[in-house]
Amino acid sequence: MNVPKDTKPMIWGAVIGAALCATVGFTWGGWVTGNTARKEAVVAAQSATVMALAPFCADRFRAQDDATAKLAELTKASTWERSAVVEKSGFAMKPGTRTNDSDIARACVDLLMAPAAPKS
User: Fold this and answer.
1) What are the residue ranges of helices labelled H in 28-81?
2) Could you tell me the pTM of the whole model?
3) Quick check: 66 and 48 in contact, CB under 8 A?
4) Which of 46, 82, 84, 98 would you call most buried, defined as having the most Cβ atoms within 10 angstroms of its Cβ?
5) What is the rounded distance in angstroms from the CA atom of residue 81 to the CA atom of residue 78?
6) What is the rounded distance in angstroms from the CA atom of residue 57 to the CA atom of residue 60?
7) In the predicted structure, residue 1 carries a pLDDT above the cut 80
């Protein structure tokens, strides 16, 4: 079998081009592996859940019978203990679970401690 003399440089060009394409794609092109995509999807889903449930947590916390006392307790607590105060109230849970979610509790504290927006 006769192989054209330009075959070897052509094969090397294809190999180098493929390696360069993969390098550029994964570094600057935004390509990711399937495992990385799954991890990012889990993080995005958790963030979306927290953003959706934190306002409900804050509303339920403010709607308690002794909300004024609970807000005072929250204000007196140190920054590190505030999420524990919200978790103790039981409002930082995902629907269908029996355990508190610390991410929801932290976001709820952020909403509760934020200054009230002026009404126009």
Assistant:
1) 34-62, 67-76
2) 0.73
3) no
4) 82
5) 5
6) 5
7) no
